[in-house]
Amino acid sequence: MYNTDVPSRNELPSAAKLVRSTIIAAIVALVLLVTVVMPAEYALDPTGTGRLLGLTEMGEIKEQLAEEAAADEAAQMAPVQSSGEEPASKPAEPVSEAIVTAEAEAEEPAPTPAAEPEWDDEVRVVLTPGEGTEFKLTMEEGATARFSWVSEGGPINYDTHGDGSGQSISYEKGRGVPEDEGELEAAFTGNHGWFFRNRNDKDITLVLRTGGDYGQLKKLL
């Protein structure tokens, strides 16, 4: 068994050396905090080093995702009053059979069947710089909804995702996208839709249109 020799008093570092080492370690930690940790974690870059190393963008993405996740959890669901909805049509007034003759019926052109609307819902919302909003469709598992959205006034960031039945899913994310369209197939029964955020320095108008197999279009408050 080897026993370590006990150093003598002369071999031990002096109090001055310990203080100097502690100060140097503190300075190194402070430099790393300002140039690496703050840009990468909080998008704070007072020296500009984080931007040169690409760490500030990483921090911005983390902050954005954190804000969007917090908004998603805190928001409540409310039905959307679609601008495309129309009041129920009044019942047709009865027509006297006496004035309807076979001759008149022969002269009148056959009624043209009403065209089916392309979209079931359409909403428009103005977003100020930095503002976000979220729309979701109530859908059954395997149901497919059609969608089209456009950002008037500047591109927008979006996150297509869903939750419900004790599950959650992220379908697609995008940054600086002016418009998109396609189909959304529900991976499970629940709420599926989009979170939008305006990262421009001016107001933009988001126009969202939906149609297909879903229950309601809802907006997060």
UniProtKB/TrEMBL annotation:
Designated name of the protein: Transmembrane anchor protein
Organism: Marinobacter panjinensis
Transmembrane segments: 23-44
Residue segments, region Disordered: 68-96
Keywords: Membrane, Transmembrane, Transmembrane helix
